[in-house]
Amino acid sequence: QVQLVESGGGLVQAGGSLRLSCTSSARAFSNWVMAWFRQAPEKEREFVAAITWSGGSTYYADFVKGQFTISRDNAKNTVYLQMNSLKPEDTAVYYCAADRTVSLDYSPVRARHAGSYHYWGQGTQVTVSS
Question: Which of 18, 33, 81, 96 has the lowest CB atom count within 10 Å?
């Protein structure tokens, strides 16, 4: 069974930074498109960022505006989300997700849709205090 394990969440003051990590033991990790989503209390889950297999393409939600950076290290089977200049509205549970679809022309539209992803982590809480 495929497992995605997130880490790196916590409590931080506004303006601070966190780096989230998501690790999988799956051999196929390097073939997957990886993404981060988040869900705040009483809100729907929303797309944050995605990265293709080799890291050649990255996609971000409009609200990211250079604040977050997604990256991956396939040798470590790990994807990262570096979050800077955090704001209280960034408070949410952050989820790692994997899309096992292999495509030479991966669609940015697909990357933003939660239904595209086959595997999900359990989530890690990020709380930003004002």
Answer: 18
Q: Which of 35-39, 104-108, 122-126 bottoms out in mean pLDDT, i.e. has the lowest?
A: 104-108
Q: Is the pLDDT of residue 55 over 90?
A: no
CA 68-87-97 angle, to 5 degrees, is 45
Helix (H) or strand (E) holding 17: none
Of 109 and 104, the one with more pLDDT: 109
Kindly state the tokens that stand for 78.
Answer: 């790990």
Taken in order 110, 113, 117, 123, the sign of the CA dihedral is positive
Sequential DSSP letters for 63-113: TTTTSEEEEEEGGGTEEEEEE-S--GGG-EEEEEEEE----TT--HHHHT-
State how far the Cα of 51 lies from the Cα of 111, in Å rounded to an integer.
Answer: 8
Q: Which of 21, 79, 26, 27 is nearest to 52 (CA)?
A: 79
Mean pLDDT of the chain: 94
Per-position DSSP letters for 30-59, written without gaps between them: GGSEEEEEEE-TTS--EEEEEE-TTS--EE
